[in-house]
Amino acid sequence: MVALGLAALLAAVLFMTLGARGNWDFVLPFRGRKLAGLAMVAVAIALATVIFQTVTRNRILTPAIMGFDSLFVLVQTGLVFLFGSARLSALDPRLSFAVETLLLCGFAGLLYRWLFGASQRGLHLLLLVGIVFGTLFRSSAGLMQRLIDPDEFLVLQDRLFASFNAVDQDLLGFSALILLAVSIALWRMLPLLDVLALGRDAAIGLGVDHDRTVAIVLGLMTVLVAVSTALVGPVGFFGLMVANLAYLLLPTTRHAVLLPAAALIALVALIGGQTILERVFDYDTALAVVIEFLGGLFFILLVVRGKSR
């Protein structure tokens, strides 16, 4: 854990100072805002993935499988289709952020309430419904994308991919408060998370109100994913990688260790990756593209490894 903390600190220092020239009064605030955005997204995705895998008791699932990414694409496409990119650009970014976050939270809240209700329909239906909704959202978005003006489509394409260089500084403070509140709530629930990892029957046998606790955890996870997605866009496989790396490096079931470890690994990966792409490759590619490629390979590796067992 100490090594991960030092690695995260080193990545942050390198991001702030490597290749810096000119006026430090400009460089430090400019890079500091980007660093804050990267850090919040990394921590939010890491925490959300670990607690989601705890609830589902499956280490190859991420919140993205529930259709968050597809819903984000549908919302962005629908806004451009209805109002046009010029009007959207003129909107207050805080209003746009609030609308996107509320839509994502509302969808997830209704879905999880139905799937994790008293009937306990099960994990397989959760996966099936998530895939079906994701397909529905993407098909609807694809239809609208074919109907809009080609110039509007080019603008839309920039909004659909995760961008760590375009985090609006007006949203950082609000997002930081939300992340801090959710992190405090999760820290107070650490013993309950350890019990939830044992399974429904064991948790009920130990006196935990399973349904209520799962609903609270999923609600917190939804807020984390909604905030990170509204800030930079969808990053599907990033949480899968950092969560499983935390399991491998620190083989324990205690969430007091797993949650900070996953967050630190996410900080090292996201900040370090952005530093390398900016200073070594000179922006020749996007970090989101690299994450999706490596994440897809990592997912396949986990599936193959599971089948071999």
From TrEMBL:
Its record classes its membrane topology as:
Multi-pass membrane protein
Give the UniProt keywords, A-Z: Cell membrane, Membrane, Transmembrane, Transmembrane helix, Transport
**Single annotated GO MF:** transmembrane transporter activity
Residues annotated as transmembrane: 35-52, 64-83, 95-116, 123-144, 171-190, 202-225, 257-277, 283-304
* Gene Ontology terms describing biological process: siderophore-iron import into cell
InterPro entries from the UniProt entry: ABC_BtuC-like, ABC_transptr_permease_BtuC
Keyword Membrane attached: yes
Compartment list: Cell membrane
GO cellular component terms, semicolon-separated: plasma membrane
Q: Which family does it belong to?
A: Belongs to the binding-protein-dependent transport system permease family. FecCD subfamily.
What PANTHER family does the record point to? FERRIC ENTEROBACTIN TRANSPORT SYSTEM PERMEASE PROTEIN, PETROBACTIN IMPORT SYSTEM PERMEASE PROTEIN YCLO
Designated name of the protein: Enterobactin ABC transporter permease
- Organism the protein comes from: Cereibacter changlensis JA139
